[in-house]
Write a structure and sequence with these properties.
It is built from three helices and nine strands. Strand 1 and strand 2 form a beta hairpin. The radius of gyration is 16 Å and the shape is globular. It has 139 residues and is α+β, with helices and mostly antiparallel strands.
Length: 139
């Protein structure tokens, strides 16, 4: 089931089961997602095995948008933590909307997101190192 603009489908409605992976870290990002119902956990995998939870996205939240803006691979993985309904916004729709934006604003946005990717990567590594020493950052 999709959302249309005239006769053209601009967004897809997708349903995920508990623990179903939505996308994987390192893969190309062709859509951003809005959580309509349910919850999504965003996580990084360090050293090929240890998962660091970056956050939980609930109804109304957006995730996966970074890959659309800077055209880089996914910086993290995402999975449903319960039955989840998502609205997927395609790269094509996103780029069409962005094409009318000021080039300066687009450049600033790409720089900000590059900085954000660096901070998240470093934070995930730091959290994993703290966990190795029995220190939890969730306390």
């Amino acid at each position: 089931m999709g959302i249309t603009d005239g006769n053209k489908k601009v967004m897809d409605r997708q349903v995920y089961a508990i623990d179903q992976v939505i996308f994987r870290e390192g893969k190309p990002g062709n859509a951003a997602y809005v959580v309509q119902e349910g919850k999504v956990e965003v996580f990084k995998t360090l050293n090929g095995e240890e998962e660091v939870i970056l956050g939980t996205i609930e109804a109304g939240g957006l995730f996966g948008e970074l890959a659309l803006v800077d055209n880089q691979p996914r910086m993290a993985s995402a999975r449903a933590t319960e039955r989840t309904v998502l609205i997927a916004v395609s790269r094509q729709t996103f780029e069409k909307k962005m094409s009318g934006s000021d080039r300066f604003i687009k450049a600033i946005l790409r720089i900000l997101l590059g900085n954000y990717r660096t901070v998240v990567r470093r934070a995930a590594i730091a959290e994993a190192k703290l966990k190795e020493h029995g220190i939890s950052v969730d306390d």
